[in-house]
Amino acid sequence: MEQKLKVFLTVVKHMNFSRAAEELFITQPAVSQYVKSLEDELGIKLIDRTNKKIRLTKAGSLVAYYGGEISTLNEKMKQAVEDLAGEVKGKLSVGASYSFGEYILPHIVADFLEKFPSVDPFISIGNTHEIAEKVIRDEIDLGVVEGTISSSKLVAEKIATDRMFVIKGKKEHVEKRVHLNEETWIVREQGSGTREAFEWFAEKNGIQPAKILEFGSTQIIKEAVEAGLGVALLSEWTIRNELELEKLKIVGGGSLYYERNFYVIIRDAPFMTKTAETFLHFLRRD
């Protein structure tokens, strides 16, 4: 069934028999025959063909879903077997939340590739919730996130601590904490670890923002603060360049801050690829 399923999944990918034939380097009639043979084996129609368009039946959608799972597991099985005797090489899929992913992870990956040049990395950036979901769905090997993760499907391990500071534009004049209640706070979206850190920080310090602006990336927040739209709580990792260039300033001279932890998260599963496991050890070392 393996070849039949591969052909069927390629048809589903393109929703076109001709394009599937081109990708597989076989003829279109051969593609049709493979799909027909799979339908005969399963005893049910998978694809409706009308007016030169194709549409998956309900059974076809089920086979596409579970077939994709089977294909992914098959590739992981082959890589795991190769890992037993092989070198550290091949695909490494890592996800990270914005602060760590955009400012720290690139340097770690660069150091890792110096030692293991045969690795082919793929980096996915998202908020904490998005990265956790990708790990759970087995779309990435591991993730690095801030904030709390509540899932029995994941294992989390602390790997770093980050200090966050209140920042303002160079032209602003906010110096005392009491004034922060009168300020517009620029924050990340819900689901972001940075947003969660801000909410903890505000509660701890009795801050009730006069107004909140919600932006979807750290870079936009920095630009907005620099432009004088408000103040923000951001990681020291993300503001180093702006502080050196004197585009931003830390409120209270650094006495007002919040510490948070970063965690590496993996699926609660018995196996990891050798490459992913080696990268995990590399993260622990850093």
Automatic annotation (TrEMBL):
Species this protein is from: Domibacillus aminovorans
Family: Belongs to the LysR transcriptional regulatory family.
Record has DNA-binding as a keyword: yes
GO function terms (MF aspect): DNA-binding transcription factor activity; transcription cis-regulatory region binding
InterPro entries (alphabetical): LysR_HTH_N, LysR_subst-bd, WH-like_DNA-bd_sf, WH_DNA-bd_sf
SUPFAM superfamilies: Periplasmic binding protein-like II, Winged helix' DNA-binding domain
Protein's UniProt keywords contain Cell membrane: no
Positions of the HTH lysR-type domain: 1-57
Gene3D superfamilies documented for this protein: 3.40.190.290, Winged helix-like DNA-binding domain superfamily/Winged helix DNA-binding domain
Pfam families assigned to the protein according to its UniProt record, in alphabetical order: HTH_1, LysR_substrate
Protein's name in the database: HTH lysR-type domain-containing protein
Origin: domain of life: Bacteria
